[in-house]
Design a protein that fits this description.
2 domains, globular, 307 residues, alpha/beta, Spore Coat Polysaccharide Biosynthesis Protein SpsA, Chain A
């Protein structure tokens, strides 16, 4: 049996899939790669048949990313599970590094690492997203979207899914966040400092699940109310829950407003307006915060600035 299973959902993107598979196989010394063809309507099946070293599973009715992850989870066999989108890449040796971290911390339910940011052509931008956390109890940070952890950067013990269940297909785009919050309620996390993958950043027209940031973050804001009913969150004093909720909405609003500045520079006025309106709807007090407008103006006036 392999040490770690890498689950790669894919839907009609055969041009990017082989690189993702190659990176997964190079990321560890004992890896099972499970590719879930989520009812693709092109040559994806043929491409998968040409790829060596994978377990290929096809579903005939589109399940969405969460559903395809569940199919892959049930088809995989290792005690450790990694998630990889078909347009992202794992770095060489990164799975071995994270497996070692989990073996050194028997209590941890999952391990997370950093990510290198890339543009749509896969060119590295120089940005690095890192957890910036020592590990241990990360429940509150994840709950309020304060920990930059994504599917690409985690390896999860299979036993966690036995306790908390499968990915929630009713929460498209945030099913991974929902899952990690539920796991972090019960398990501490391990953290490795090194980047473990390359994340292709979405644009409004890239067709990635994360392309519609405003819609995803608005869904996260709504879903957080349900996550606040988890036993550990519900046990917090009411004042702490309200403060956590306020911090989350402010963080979401700031993210959307800064991203709106980037979209304005790119000429994506429709997406900039949508993000700004969503931000102000979720957190109207941000409209009364002059510092925010000063920062937005500075970003608009500096073409090379990064929100």
């Amino acid at each position: 049996m392999a040490r770690v299973s890498v689950i790669i959902p894919t839907h009609s993107r055969p041009h990017v899939l082989p690189r993702a598979v190659e990176s997964a196989l190079a990321a560890g010394s004992d890896v099972e790669v499970v590719v879930v063809d989520d009812a693709s309507t092109d040559e994806t099946a043929e491409v998968c048949r040409s790829l060596e070293g994978i377990r290929y599973v096809r579903v005939e009715q589109n399940q969405g990313v969460a559903g395809a992850r569940n199919v892959g989870l049930l088809a995989s066999s290792a005690d450790l599970v990694a998630l990889l989108d078909d347009d992202d890449l794992r770095l060489p040796g990164s799975l071995d590094l994270q497996v070692e971290a989990l073996e050194a911390d028997a209590a941890a339910g999952f391990v997370c690492g950093g990510m290198l940011m890339a543009d749509q052509e896969g060119r590295l931008t120089g940005e690095v997203s890192a957890p910036g956390h020592a590990g241990g109890d990360v429940f509150r940070e994840l709950l309020e979207l304060a920990l930059p952890v994504m599917p690409l950067s985690v390896v999860i013990r299979r036993e966690c899914f036995t306790r908390v269940g499968l990915f929630n297909a009713r929460q498209p785009g945030i099913d991974d966040w929902d899952m990690l919050v539920r796991i972090a309620e019960l398990y501490p996390a391990a953290v490795v400092e090194e980047p473990v993958g390359v994340y292709r950043q979405p644009t409004p027209t890239s067709g990635q699940g994360s392309s519609s940031q405003a819609r995803q973050l608005a869904r996260a804001a709504r879903h957080q109310l349900e996550l606040l009913r988890l036993p550990r969150a519900a046990a917090l004093p009411a004042a702490e829950r309200r403060a956590l909720r306020r911090r989350t909405l402010r963080r979401i609003a700031d993210t959307l407003l800064l991203n709106a500045a980037r979209r304005l520079r790119e000429g994506s006025y429709h997406h900039a307006l949508g993000g700004s309106l969503t931000a102000l709807r979720l957190c109207p007090t941000r409209a009364l915060r002059p510092r925010g407008y000063v920062k937005l103006a500075s970003l608009l006036l500096k073409p090379d600035a990064e929100p």
